[in-house]
Amino acid sequence: MTTITHRLPQKRHLVTDLPGPRSAELTARRRSAVAAGLGSAVPVYAVDADGGVIVDVDGNSLIDLGSGIAVTTVGASNPAVADAVAAQAHHFTHTCFMVTPYEAYIAVAEKLNELTPGDHEKRSVLFNSGAEAVENAVKIARLATGRNAVVAFDHAYHGRTNLTMALTAKSIPYKHNFGPFAPEIYRMPMSYPYRDELGTDGVAAANRAITMIDKQLTADSVAAVIIEPVQGEGGFIVPAPGFLPTLADWCRSNGVVFIADEVQSGFCRTGDWFACDHEGVVPDLITMAKGIAGGMPLAAVTGRADLMDAVHPGGLGGTYGGNPVACAGALAAIDQMSELDLPARARHIGEIVTSSLSAKAQALAAEGRGVIGEVRGRGGMIAVELVKPGSTEPDPELAKAAAAHALSRGVVVLTCGTHGNILRLLPPLVIGDDLLREALDILGDALTVD
Ligand SMILES: *Cc1c(COP(=O)(O)O)cnc(C)c1O
Fold first, then answer.
1. For the chain, what are the domain ranges?
2. Tag placement on the chain: N or C end, fewer CB within 10 Å?
3. What are 225's strand-pairing partners?
4. Residue 390's pLDDT band (boundaries 50, 70, 90)?
């Protein structure tokens, strides 16, 4: 295993209040130039990033617990990725794979066919964004099955385009007043051990959904079931053991395409190459993006050759899909994931994060401030669900206040969840242990802010 050397000092270092004066200036400038509908989790503008740190325009060095939403798994300026991207850009930035194809696209497809769960015959197709991958997975499933209905779950997030908005569960901010939505989407209850009356009985939770599908639409009208094996925006919800395998088995028996949306959970994030791997689930189609290319915009659908090849020539594509610079980034990033054994690194990070936050939960509970309802997740994808002490009532205000407090001390942390009451940790997997522990201490302090 190789180790990584960082270009920037791996230190938290604050030289101004946050946001600093130059960030504040950019926020003011942005208001008259950038559409108001676009939010930013943190009002601090970046100039550099490497390993576990982001340097802002005022010269502050912040600890990154977000990875740009699970994207910069190998670091935001991983030298192998940066070199591969630069080298490709010096030759050609684009020809369009649908006009004059090139080898890197094929090499990425081969890699994805090899790394994704299952050893069956597979094919891949590349796109620009997670939402575009999800849209195409649904197109492929509908064409291959000749059926229309698509089943999605409570708390699901699949993107912001019209079809993926319809698949997404939460109205504000993603869907509110953006309708009408794509038809033939049916939502079923998720397995959510912390809040679900079926608790850790994943098989029962899957059967609850299957019974509802049978009642509401019958299996033979269902083209696909789409699910995030660990839900991302919905709150890092890990379904109870048995839930995913039972659903996948039902799909197989009924000719329904099982789509795993691994846009957030894929590429070593959960401590395995894909979150499906933890329970040996083999999806028919898998959607990928975010961590795939070390920060370059790339997405993919990989799946059973018979489904993928059912589509007529010209039925799939896009001008930029599988852009050669993004493909070069992906090949280098995936190489780094193997070389640095990032699945193992994610598991190690998961142990540090879980033990720190669980200890904090116990200490707070002992003081009568039991605000941590649950610490959950897998590997480098751990969240804390915050509640009003002594209850399971969500506390979104505390999540917001804690994230703001952490930022004021130089730690970038994201919130999520249907109720907005969840702090989610997605550090770059190349972050050092000491820096991570420092950020966790600050986060622990942030939970006691009033
Ligand atoms: C982020 C995300 C998407 C959408 O990806 P974009 O690249 O933002 O379009 C889809 N599914 C899941 C699970 C995601 O986390």
1. 21-64+341-446, 81-339
2. C
3. 151, 258
4. confident
Percent helix, percent strand, percent coil in the chain, to nearest 5: 40, 15, 45
Q: How far, in Å, CA of 24 to CA of 191, rounded?
A: 42
**Domain 21-64+341-446 and domain 81-339 have a common topology:** no
CA neighbor of 276 nearest in space, from 73, 113, 116? 116
Q: Is 51 exposed, middle or buried (0-12, 13-18, 19+ CB in 10 A)?
A: buried
Q: Please report, for residues 23, 164, 170, 301, the alpha-carbon distance to residue 161 in angstroms, rounded to integers and kept in the order given.
A: 30, 5, 14, 17
Q: Please choose from 128, 158, 270 the residue to mutate so as to test ligand 1's pocket, defined by most ligand atoms within 8 A of CB.
A: 158
Closest atom of ligand 1 to CA, residue 159: 4
Q: Burial letters for 68-101: b for 16+ Cβ neighbours within 10 Å, e otherwise?
A: bbbbbbbbbbbbbbbebbeebeeeeeeebbeeee
Rounded mean pLDDT, 25-54: 97
pLDDT band (50, 70, 90) for residue 450: low
Atom of ligand 1 nearest to the CA of 264: 15
Q: Could you give the CA distance from residue 232 to residue 414 in angstroms, rounded to a whole number? A: 11
N-term to C-term CA, the chain: 45
Q: What is the CATH number assigned to the segment(s) 21-64+341-446?
A: 3.90.1150.10
pTM of the model: 0.98
- Band of residue 3 on the pLDDT scale cut at 50, 70, 90: confident
Helices 342-366 and 433-446: crossing angle in degrees, nearest 10, is 30
158 with 134: CB under 8 angstroms?
Answer: yes
Distance 67 CA to ligand 1 centre (A): 14
* Atom 15 (ligand 1) nearest CA: 264
Please check the confidence at residue 1 and state whether its pLDDT lies above 60: no
Residue 202, pLDDT above cutoff 70: yes
Ligand 1 neighbour 265 (Cβ under 6 A): no
With a 6 Å cutoff on the Cβ, whether 137 touches ligand 1 is no
Q: Taking the mean position of all CA atoms in its chain, how far away is CA 405? A: 24
Give me the CATH code for the 81-339 domain, please: 3.40.640.10
- Tens digit of each residue's pLDDT (9 = 90 or more) over 179-192: 999 999 999 999 99
* Closest CA to ligand 1's atom 11: 158
CA of 426 to the centre of ligand 1 (A): 15
